[in-house]
Design brief:
Elements (H helix, E strand, L loop, with lengths): L8 E7 L10 H24 L4 E6 L8 H9 L17 E5 L10 H8 L1 E9 L1 H14 L3 E5 L3 E2 L3 H15 L2 E3 L12
Parallel strand pairs: 1-2, 1-4, 2-3, 4-5, 4-6, 5-7
Length: about 190
């Protein structure tokens, strides 16, 4: 893919937030998710208001025949539906199903971003020290600008999340900020 000349726009990427929370690390993860859900919901609302693409990149949980609606329905049928409802995809949201840690690995995300003229991704979601970190690296090697609002990413292990945020900033040139400092400006001309 050739890099588009001219204006680029941002996109908000919501990583793995459609989740059933029925896995081994859920007990460690859920308290962090509870803190970030309102922040992510506010970022989603601001992105939608600014006509910025909101893209959900979500694990398929090994359900290879499923589509995004089934993943959302499965998560809403579990005890932690309250963590899904505020950030639920709307009809305008885009959805990329992934099978591994990075939102880019073996998915059409890079092409989708290119086709939308996106040059800057704002990464939110879970888990900071895993999927968010690997997605940030893959965005960086694709020459995308990366912003990670530290209060809009959840972790299992806070000390590893801190190290991951530092690595994203130092090694990948990511802008680590707070959600309130994350804006969605119009495309540059």
């Amino acid at each position: 893919m050739e890099r588009r000349a001219g204006p680029t726009r941002p996109a908000l990427i919501v990583v793995d937030m459609i989740n059933t929370y029925d896995h081994a690390d859920a007990g460690l993860l859920v308290p962090s998710v509870e803190r970030v859900v309102p922040v992510i919901a506010e970022l989603i609302a601001r992105a939608r208001e600014a006509d910025v693409p909101v893209i959900y990149a979500n694990d398929n949980f090994g359900l290879w025949r499923s589509h995004h609606g089934e993943l959302v329905d499965a998560a809403l049928a579990q005890p932690h539906a309250d963590l899904i409802e505020p950030i639920r995809p709307d009809d305008e949201s885009l959805f990329v199903v992934k099978a591994r840690h990075s939102a880019f690995y073996e998915t059409p995300l890079a092409y989708l971003l290119w086709s939308l003229g996106v040059g800057h991704v704002v990464l939110t979601g879970q888990v900071t020290e895993q999927c968010v970190l690997y997605s940030a690296l893959d965005a960086h090697i694709r020459h995308l600008e990366v912003t990670v609002p530290r209060d809009a990413v959840a972790s299992i292990h806070p000390h590893l999340a801190s190290a991951a945020l530092e690595m994203m900033e130092r090694n990948m040139g990511a802008r680590i900020t707070d959600a309130k400092e994350t804006d969605f400006p119009p495309a540059a001309s």
